[in-house]
TrEMBL record:
This is N-acetyltransferase. CDD domains: NAT_SF. PROSITE patterns: GNAT. GO terms for cellular component: cytoplasm. Pfam families: Acetyltransf_3. Keywords: Transferase. It comes from Nocardioides glacieisoli. It comes from the Bacteria.
Length: 184
């Protein structure tokens, strides 16, 4: 199990099936906020959360997906994920979700930076993509802070509830990655 310290009280740790209750509680408390920008939902119950985690646990074993919990102390406040990792092309997509109560502290930027370092240094990936709806300004700012380049916008790519959303595609190449920023 991978565990990466982000700062004194924040860490990334692989989410495992035994974290299903904590993930379900997080989605019960914050799902309405998360679902404004995510094309998936239904993780408020323990079985739904366990199925979500299980799919990433299998993917981790196959080397094509990864899901980390973001922990502040002993509290699960969000997650970072690689919904897809293509070892052959050495390309991955990164994503994140974080409780509103944990925002504004730079946690997402540092967590994604740790993921990028793992992807480029440990996994030897060449490219990591970041995708977000144009209206998701917080997500766009993370991409900008970490040096991603906006490559374009795909029109009406994914549905959120009943509305189709545009999708911005950002990317960072391994040669552009300058490494983890110093911890505060």
């Amino acid at each position: 199990m991978l565990s990466l310290p982000i700062d004194d009280d924040v860490r990334l740790t692989d989410l495992e099936p035994w974290h299903a209750e904590q993930l379900a509680a997080l989605f019960r408390a914050h799902g309405a906020d998360f679902y404004d920008w995510l094309p998936w939902e239904g993780f408020e119950d323990v079985e739904g959360a366990r199925g979500f985690i299980d799919s990433f646990t299998r993917g981790r074993g196959e080397g094509n997906r990864r899901l980390f919990g973001i922990w502040v102390g002993d509290e699960l406040v969000g997650g970072t994920l690689f919904p897809s990792i293509n070892s052959r092309s050495r390309i991955a997509e990164a994503g994140v979700f974080l409780a509103a109560s944990a925002r504004g502290r730079g946690i997402v930027t540092r967590a994604v930076a740790a993921m990028l370092d793992w992807a480029f240094v440990e996994r030897g990936l060449h490219r990591v993509e970041w995708k977000c709806a144009p209206g998701n300004l917080a997500s766009r700012r993370v991409a900008e802070r970490l040096g991603f380049t906006h490559e374009g916008t795909l029109r009406e790519v994914f549905p959120v509830r009943e509305e189709r959303q545009d999708l911005e595609v950002w990317a960072l190449l391994s040669r552009e990655w300058s490494g983890l920023p110093p911890r505060p």
